[in-house]
Write a structure and sequence with these properties.
The chain has 282 residues and is mainly beta. The chain has one domain. The protein is built from three helices and 21 strands. It has an eight-stranded mixed β-sheet with strand order 7-6-10-11-21-13-17-16. The longest helix has 13 residues.
């Protein structure tokens, strides 16, 4: 079942790359590039891969204080399903008729910002115009569909402008029930947290260290998708995360080469996939 484990992990992570990407509207145009030195003790004739060029210029940026008066979130809903008779057994396809609810805080009353359905065939969706009052919107999406575990999608930072290409992936209840067959320890009624780490320009950061904590205590079991498939570099998935009992108080964070990237809180809910992104700063 090793292949199932790899496919499952990469599939869950692959969709997270666009989370929180506002198209660079808050990023400096002339951003400096940080070059990480390659190893100096490699044998003379050994192949040394190009050192990654990562942009960390937003690391100490102040949080934005203004936003467009209204914003929309648009993207595609996809679903991951399991068929042991197929090869490979894991499949990802557009997901039609997914209820996608825009929320803030507890998503009750005025914090329920409306629900749209993903389109047939393509799974595409666009929320209604969400009123911000001119201040950054600290919101998230909740996706639900019969036969699938719920998914929550949190951006890397409060939303200040329209977001496009927001990925929403739902895991079928059958996949969820068979995590143990993939060699994954995941307790009943616990949550999964999928995290994608990028630099200020949206480039995936390989070699980051991701933590999911609550009250300073590390939660769950985190694995790197990049360790299973280089194309999923920057992606991490944390299984077996106990759900929050009250408001959002689970903290996702990442460090890289001694730098601590910007942490933020998410809400983990029983039997739910929570997806988010981490960037160096605003």
């Amino acid at each position: 079942m090793g292949n199932l484990r790899a496919l499952l992990t990469v599939a869950v992570i692959a969709f997270a790359a666009a989370c929180g990407d506002d198209g660079g509207s808050n990023k400096p145009v002339d951003a400096a590039i940080v070059i990480v030195d390659a190893a100096i003790d490699a044998p003379p004739d050994a192949y040394v891969p190009d050192a990654p060029n990562y942009d960390f210029t937003c690391l100490n940026n102040a949080a934005p204080t203004t936003a467009a008066n209204t914003v929309t979130l648009a993207g595609t809903a996809q679903e991951i399903t399991l068929d042991f008779a197929a090869n490979p057994p894991i499949a990802i396809s557009p997901s039609a008729n997914v209820a996608i609810q825009a929320c803030r805080d507890n998503c009750m009353g005025q914090d329920n910002l409306g629900t749209v359905m993903s389109a047939a065939t393509t799974g595409a969706f666009t929320t209604a115009a969400l009123t911000t009052g001119g201040t950054p919107l600290d919101g998230y999406l909740v996706a639900t569909k019969t036969g699938f575990q719920n998914t929550r999608v949190y951006p890397a930072a409060p939303v200040t402008a329209n977001l496009a290409d927001v990925p929403v992936l739902l895991m079928s209840s059958q996949v969820y029930a068979n995590l143990g067959l993939a060699g994954i320890t995941h307790g009943a009624d616990n949550a999964i947290v999928a995290t994608f780490v990028t630099d200020c320009a949206g480039t995936p950061i390989g070699g980051a260290n991701v933590t999911v904590t609550r009250g300073g205590v590390s939660l769950g079991n985190t694995m790197s998708a990049g360790a299973l498939d280089p194309s999923a570099e920057g992606g991490f998935i944390t299984f077996d995360v106990p759900p929050d009992t009250t408001a959002a108080n689970t903290v996702v964070n990442a460090t890289y080469m001694g730098m601590t990237l910007r942490s933020h809180t998410v809400r983990t809910v029983a039997n739910t996939l929570t997806a988010t992104a981490i960037e160096p700063g605003f």
